[in-house]
Specification:
Blueprint lengths: L1 H17 L1 H30 L10 E8 L2 E4 L3 H10 L3 E16 L2 E10 L3 H5 L5 E2 L15 E4 L1 H8 L9 E4 L2 E8 L15 E4 L7 E3 L3 E2 L13 E2 L2 E6 L5 H18 L1 H4 L3 E6 L7 H39 L1 H9 L4 H36 L16 H26 L4 H6 L7 H37 L10 E7 L7 H16 L4 E7 L10 E6 L11 E8 L3 H5 L3 E4 L12 E6 H7 L9 E4 L6 E8 L14 E5 L7 E8 L3 H15 L7 E4 L1 H7 L1 H35 L1 H9 L4 H30 L15 H27 L3 H6 L2
Parallel strand pairs: 4-9, 6-8, 18-23, 20-22
Antiparallel strand pairs: 1-2, 1-13, 1-14, 3-4, 3-7, 3-10, 3-13, 5-8, 6-9, 7-8, 11-12, 15-24, 15-25, 16-24, 17-18, 17-21, 19-22, 20-23, 21-22
Length: 826
């Protein structure tokens, strides 16, 4: 067996060396298909499939707070402590939150991403630091008393030079020195799939950072984030006790939360618990609901490219099998069994597929490295943790083997049964021409249909992108620049921060060409989502007692003028609002239409979360505008007066006559003149916010469009191959017909007609597939429907042009056949 296999391999390499063009095209097509599939699988694997990089991940469960309109909300630290003490279903609970911070290592400032965690984080998860230790229990106690950190392997190498004496070295976070007590293992980058954390600090140091994620705030006692039970910001994960199910844990957590609601009704009324298997949570249940279909669409799209490549190779193997009919007949006449011939031909297709897979794996590795190095168009330090691991290699190997078998078996089976007498006389192929042509045509129809599907998808996304570019955001980005900072990163007290803001606003107003300046706690179209629960005063029929979650932002005087947002009723904030007993609020027209349809909103009151909560009085109504995405419907928004409070986070906004890029440079220069070490979370022309909001559509259009172009190229090659092979097999027939009087135009038309007939069948199938499958794009399309006629028509025209080009060369070759030469063929 091994001896015959070695003989088949030697024969295969000798045969492929004799046909280098065939080998190169076959391997190249498969390399593209398998490489793209492997690269996309590595991304999907990193985000959705790879197990959590912890000990016994199956024993972990994610714990959420349910209530306030959030089915899977975050948890406050006091609630976490009570859950950890009372929830008997768990051996231990861990609390954590992502954070961004400005750190200084050896005098070099940079923005970094990490996590603030409870002290038991590394122990419960079973993560053993490569150097040093994790956190000790006492480092959870006392606020701002334990400035220690565990750093990532990457930060150790890049910021500390990989020095073995890193323990005890310090870096500055805010103005405080932090001591390195440990280095995480190289294969651990945190619990957020696809992202790399740089450092971890204990929960006691929360006052030095601003958590990132779901922040849900309602009135409660306490001065700090660790004391306020109504400030929910932590994600909780727990290790289940042996033989305790997730369902039992959910009941246990909900019972504890019911106790807390009775004990602390001001902050915990109507709040419960929810528990899910940690293996089922990648980022967040609601975000996962978008990631999983997106991953499926990406795998499906690149899988279609591989299908086209496989159909292409199958057509080539069928044609090659016909040309080798005499060889197969000789081997059969010399005693080779049909099984032996099938095995040899299957080995050839497997060698092609495995070689293509090896090249494709190298291509996938290059692609994944490029994706890992890619930086989103934001200033935040988002690093992607993507790699070709054992699971990805196994996927590529399995895909190569399945491709080799799937592509090779049918051509091998057909080529292994020649009609010996005609084949040895070289008079006929010995294969039913009608059946051979039917199979080849079916493969071309598949290629055309799949290519049309991908081209339609790319055109839909492209037209959606063009339509989005014409959507009016409701505010004017011309001459508008923004810069987002957090003075908390630099250790500013509230008093120092207020002085900074006053000086900054005064300095910005004096800049040449500046027409208006403002500050906001949230920029429109930014990725940050901030909501608050509001109720209509005295109208429980419109909103439940727990309130309705409404988008909100705190803005300064001059915000609406600077952004170019028209006030359609009432007025904007001004100095008279800073001392009123009832806090003012400016609302969007959509909020008025929701709560007071057909009525005037000025003077109406809203309350924070409950009918007894903090009151707000509507003083103005602003026109509807795009707030979260460019494709959204008018959204209810509540704007609060920033000047009545203080926040270390601020987005400065200036409008300047002239270029927005110049405005952005002037803005950052003025702010850095006040604080040289300032780091920016966002800076530049406000138009970048629009670009960032369109980034998913733009990336999708580029990806699907690129895959469509590749599939179109492969389909064109397949159509060319089938028509060219048909012409080569019919040379004698064409010569006879021309000798009997058929003119070149008719021959040319017949060959083109054969190609166009195949195109027509593929187009009909492809249009049907596109009509069914492109509905999944409906949620991301802007201004275009999934059945957009222009996209479908353009796709057909593009594919028709490619098909005509593919058929033109063999058609001209057929029309130029010399009848005398053709008639001499035997």
């Amino acid at each position: 067996m091994l001896s015959s296999l070695r003989q088949d391999l030697r024969h295969t390499w000798r045969s492929l060396r004799q046909q280098p063009v065939f080998a190169a095209v076959a391997i190249g097509s498969l390399a593209l298909g398998i490489g793209l599939n492997t690269a996309v699988f590595s991304v999907v694997n990193g985000l959705l499939l790879r197990p959590l990089p912890v000990e016994r991940p199956a024993d972990l469960a994610a714990v959420f707070t349910r209530g306030g309109g959030e089915p899977y909300g975050t948890t406050s630290y006091p609630d976490f402590r009570d859950l950890a003490a009372r929830a008997t279903a768990f051996d231990a609970l861990v609390g954590r939150s992502m954070m961004f911070a400005s750190i200084s290592v050896d005098g070099e400032n940079r923005l970094t991403m990490g996590e603030v965690v409870t002290a038991n984080y590394f122990d419960v998860l079973g993560i053993r630091p490569a150097i040093g230790r994790g956190f000790s229990p006492e480092e959870d106690a006392g606020e701002l008393t334990h400035p220690v950190a565990v750093i990532s392997d990457r930060m150790w190498r890049e910021s500390f030079g990989g020095r073995p004496d890193v323990l005890g070295r310090t870096f500055r976070l805010k103005t405080r020195p932090y001591t390195v007590v440990g280095v995480a293992p190289r294969d651990f980058a945190g619990l957020v799939p696809g992202l790399e954390m740089d450092l971890w600090i204990p929960i006691s140091m929360t006052g030095d950072i601003e958590p990132v994620g779901l922040n849900n705030v309602m009135p409660s006692d306490g001065n700090t984030r660790l004391e306020r039970r109504g400030t929910r910001w932590m994600f909780v994960i727990g290790r289940l006790k042996p033989s305790v199910s997730v369902e039992a844990a959910a009941a246990n957590v909900d019972a504890v939360m019911t106790q807390l609601a009775a004990e602390h009704p001001r902050s915990n009324a109507d709040h419960g618990g929810a528990v899910l298997p940690a293996s089922a949570i990648r980022v967040h249940p609601e975000i996962d609901g978008v990631l999983r279909p997106t991953g499926a669409v990406l795998l499906g799209a690149v899988g279609l490219v591989l299908l086209v490549a496989c159909a292409n190779l199958a057509s080539m193997l069928l044609a090659r099998g016909v040309s080798r009919t005499r060889e197969m007949a000789l081997r059969s006449a010399l005693g080779a069994s049909r099984t032996r011939l099938v095995r040899q031909l299957t080995v050839e297709s497997l060698v092609l597929a495995l070689t293509g897979g090896a090249v494709g794996l190298a291509l996938a590795g290059w692609t994944v490295r490029a994706l890992a190095a890619f930086r989103l168009p934001v200033e935040l330090p988002v690093t992607f943790a993507l790699a070709i691991d054992g699971r990805v290699v196994a996927f590529g190997l399995a895909l190569s083997i399945l491709t080799g078998l799937g592509v090779g078996l049918v051509p091998a089976w057909r080529a292994s049964r020649p009609d010996l007498v005609p084949a040895l006389k070289a008079e006929a192929t010995g294969v039913s021409r009608r059946r051979r042509v039917s199979l080849s045509q079916a493969l071309v129809v598949i290629q055309v249909a799949v290519s049309l599907l991908l081209v339609v998808g790319g055109l839909l996304l492209g037209r959606s992108l063009l339509a989005a570019g014409r959507v009016d955001p409701g505010w004017d980005p011309r001459g508008l620049a923004v810069a987002s900072i957090s003075l908390d990163f630099h250790g500013y007290t509230e008093a120092q921060g207020r002085v900074f803001y006053d000086r900054a606003l005064e300095g910005l107003r004096q800049l040449p060409g500046v027409t208006s300046v403002a500050i906001s706690g949230r920029l429109p179209l930014s990725p940050n989502v901030q909501t608050t629960a509001l109720v209509v005063d005295g109208r429980p029929d419109l909103t439940p007692d727990g309130g309705v979650s409404i988008d909100n932002a705190s803005v300064s005087e001059g915000y609406f003028e600077t952004m170019g947002l028209p006030i359609v009723d009432g007025r904007a904030f001004d100095s008279r609002d800073r001392t009123t007993e009832v806090a003012p609020v400016v609302v969007s027209q959509a909020l008025v239409d929701r709560f007071w349809p057909g009525e005037r909103a000025i003077g109406r009151r809203l309350r924070s979360r409950t009918q007894q909560g903090t009151p707000f009085e509507v003083i103005g109504v602003v026109a509807d505008h795009k707030f979260r995405t460019m494709g959204e419907a008018p959204r209810p928004i509540a704007y609060m007066d920033r000047d009545r409070g203080y926040s270390p986070y601020a987005s400065f906004i200036i409008r300047m006559r002239g270029d927005a890029n110049q405005a952005g440079v002037a803005l950052t220069r003025e702010l850095r003149a006040l604080e040289p070490d300032l780091v920016f979370l966002e800076s530049g022309p406000a138009a970048r916010l629009v670009d960032l909001s369109l980034f998913p559509v733009r990336a999708g259009a580029a990806l699907i469009g690129g895959l469509g172009a590749l599939a179109l190229l492969l389909a064109g090659l397949g159509l060319y191959g089938v028509i060219a092979f048909s012409v080569s097999r019919r040379t004698r027939e064409i010569g006879i017909r021309m000798a009997l009087g058929a003119d070149r135009r008719r021959v040319l038309g017949q060959v083109l007609g054969e190609g166009l007939w195949l195109f027509g069948l593929g187009a009909v199938v492809g249009l049907g597939l596109a009509a069914v499958t492109t509905s999944v794009l409906g949620s991301v399309l802007l201004g275009v429907t999934p059945l957009d006629p222009a996209s479908y028509g353009a796709a057909v025209v593009v594919l028709l042009a490619a098909s005509l080009a593919a058929c033109a060369v063999p058609a001209r070759r057929a029309a130029s056949v010399d009848p005398l030469v053709a008639l001499r063929q035997t």
